[in-house]
Structures are given as C-alpha cells and as structure tokens.
Amino acid sequence: MTITNGYEQSDRESKLDILNLPSLEDQARKIIPTGGFGYIQGGSEDEWTLRENTEAFNHVRIVPRALTDMENPSTDTSVFGIDLKTPIMMAPAAAQGLAHSRGEVATAEGVAAAGALMAQSTYSSTSIADTAAAGKRADGSPAPQFFQLYMSKDWDFNESLLREAMAAGVKGIILTVDATVDGYRESDIVNNFQFPIPMANLTKFSEGDGKGKGIMEIYAAAAQKIGPKDVKRIAEFTNLPVIVKGVEAPEDATLAIGAGASGIYVSNHGGRQLNGGPASFDALHSVAEAVNGQVPIIFDSGVRRGSHVFKALASGADLVALARPVIYGLALGGAQGVESVFNHLRDELLIDMQLAGTATIDDVKHARLVK
C-alpha cells in the first residue's frame, strides 16, 4: 500500500484470476478505504435504480442459434472511425486515485492493453495529458481515448480543459448532461466523505482542486442548465465528435443530434443520479429507434456479464461501457487488473456469440432477442 496525501491506496500490479465481475466488489471492499469505496460503489437514495440497472437485462432473452456452421467469433469493431479489438469500453469515472496510487494512468494502460477505448473524466486524479500519454498499444502507438466534460458555469475553464484534451490527441468529447446537480448519495453522507486527494484537472479552477470537498460542493460549481446550444458550442470549438451522455428519453436524443452531436450515450450515471428512473437498458431500445442509425450509440449502467454486452449491442448500442468493475480490478491489480477485467468480459461475450451463432459484432447487432 502507498500513502498519498494521507490516504492509503493500493499500488499492487498483477493479473487477476476472475470468476466473474460481481465477485470483484467484495474483494475491492477489503482494499479501498471505507469513504472511497462508498463513493465508488454507492448510488442515490435507496439505490433502486442502481440495482435495477443489472436486473433489467433479464427482461429480454437471447435466442440461441444452432447449425450455423461457424466458429471463432471476433469482437473486432470500428466506431467513430476508430478500430477496436472489443466493443467494451471504459466509462468515464472520477477520482480513480481512490482505488490505486497510479489512478487513471494505470487504467489507461490496462484499457489500451485490452485493445479497448478509454474515456477519462474531468474529475480524474491524473491530468488529461498524463492519462492520454499512458495509453499505448502493443506497437507503441497512442491508444484511442475520449475526454468527458462536466460543464462548468465558467466557460473559460471549460475551454481550457477542451484545449488540453485536443492537445493530448483525444478522439472525441463526451458531454455529461445528467449531472446538473448531484444525486442524493447516502453513503457519502454516512461516511462524511470528502475527497482526500486532488483532482488534477481542477488545479486551474477558481473553486479549488476538489481535495477536502464533498461531491455536492464540487457539483455546485457545475453548470446547472445545459441545452442544445452547449452541444453546438463544444462541437464548433473542438471540431471533434461530441457524444451526449446521460440520455434516456428519445426526445433528448433527437435534440442532441439536431444540435450537432456525433454520438448518443444512453446512461443513468450508474444509478447515481435520479433514483426511480428507468434502468438504462430499459431505455436503450426506444432511444435507438429515435436515433435510427444517424450516429453511434454508447451504452452503460449495470453491465456485469458478457450476455449483458450482447443484449445491449442487440438492442441498438455500438459500444458498451462499464466503470465500477474496472475500478475494482484497478484496486486489486493495477493496470494488469484492469486488463484482466476487460479480457474476462470479452471472453464471456465470445462464448455468448458462439452459442448465439453470431460471428461478428455486426451479427450480434442483428441477433434476435425476445421478451
């Protein structure tokens, strides 16, 4: 263990022998200090939506196919013009230094090793440049990354972050729109949680770097109204694809695309914001119908199994993201632990693809599901 700013963090580096992703939570609970674990694991209010996010995958079934004369399915895919070895990506998640001394730098290394797409958060514990530089493919070339923006009321600050992301070579901007205020997260209240480590991207922010503050204080400086004009402004400023994250209503997808969004991200913030809202998976199909193939769709919230990835792809997603299990893998094994999580989930997906008679990710997208 390493002590950083008075906070004990894991610094272990090892591949993990994973039975399944849900089992990682209890293992990580023993390593991540209580306040940090509560912040990572917790949802809002009584956490009904958090639980429903995973349960909702049981609302549809995969129809298995036989006599397909196929073997060795492939998870290779291309989205936003980016070639990937897997449709599974890292969702943006704050303050990963709570789980491991190397934080997002180690996550970026593990995601790159798995041939996946990394998304780094505004509230990262490592800088945009350092996180981007850490992601290297096996041949030494930069691995693709997105940068996620929590929009501030201060546009000078927003633009400074976007400039840093552009200089770091990110391939797209994820604009989070479902966090204009913080959800009521009781774990943070019970633990009186305040960030024990700074958030590197906030060092230039007039309100401070987040150390010693709770998440509600940090969100108080965020923009509390976000509209189509903001999507347009970011797209024009960066000339990069803007993916609007936090969409569950078809109308919002239509508004976002009309404002110039190059992607829609179906998510309820992992059950951390509006408790009592629909499971993200239950919202996916109707949003996908509204999008109608105009732009790619990213999906997250509750993903724990290869079959969940399969069902999301078959319901309209082009990429499927997750965060909590990856952060648990980070705590347990650093960059190698992160890679192990992605590889395990990909292996489960490959089994499902073979049994469903789907040789490619495009085949999965056309697979039959029944209620």
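Above is the first protein from milestone M3; the second protein from the same milestone is given next.
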Amino acid sequence: MNLLQKMRGKGQSPPAAAPLEILWSWIGSFLGISAVSLIHYKILNQSDLMMIIGSFGASAVLIYGAINSPLAQPRNLIGGHILSAIVGVTAFQLLAWEPWLAASLAVSTSIALMHLTKTLHPPGGATALIAVIGSDSIHSLGYLYVIMPVALGAFTMLIIALIINNIPKTRHYPQFWR
C-alpha cells in the first residue's frame, strides 16, 4: 500500500452526537472552565499566581465532550498534565537560551513519558509547551507551575467532570481509574 492510499483512510466518520449529549458536554465544559477561571480571576488575580492555562480548553473537550475516550480518563488528565508540566519546566530551565530546542524536547519527551506511564492526554503536550513559551509570569513560577496552575486546575476540572458526567443516565464517567 503506497502513502497516498494510506492517507485516504479506511473508516467512516462517527455519527453526530445527540442533542442531549451536546447539551451535557456544554454544561460540563462551562462549569469546569468557569470554576478554574473564577479561582484565577476572582481569588488569584491580585497575586502573581495563576490558575488557568490554554491547555485546559483542550482538556475540557476530552473530559466533558469525549468522556469514553481513554485519553479523557482521570489517570490521563491528571498524570498527563503533571508529567508534562514537570518536563516543560525542566526543559525551559535547562535550555532557556535555545527556546526552539527546549520547546521541541519538552513536547516530545512529554509524549514519550505519557506513553510509558499510560497517561497519554494530548493537552499535556500543550502544558509542556506553555512552560517553555509562556510569559515571564509562567517562567517565574518554576516548578510551582506543576502545582498551580496545572495540578490544581486539572483536579478542579476533574471534580466537575465526576459530578456533571454522572448526572444523566446515558453518561458514565470515568471508564477506568488505573
């Protein structure tokens, strides 16, 4: 099979989500991002600390919109973000003078570690990248970045997901913990 034939794909697009499923995904993502944002803007805004990062938007898609995906499970959400944050901060601290190299190593090493630990969560790659390309306020956090915003934000979103995703009879979250 040549490369062009491989790129055509073999399967079909999955069916569209039901309107009620879309509504519950919207409610979950609204409440999850609201909780993290409220903490960020109403409590931490007066300090140099932060609670919200861009990769949480992608996590919201998974944990509220694709709840059956292995990539959306608690182990993946928490482990993927925390491991990636550690890798990202380390890459920046070791290679800040070559940001292109720090960014590349942070993302690729995060992917490898998430694979090795069965915590693959695509937004983790963004969490690692943010640690490298983020603002001075991100860089000044050092390894505190792993705790806040990353771990605390991911746990906040997980709590909302555990509640909201189990209200409707048609949804069950998580599929697994370990």
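Note on the second protein: The chain is about 65% helix and 0% strand.
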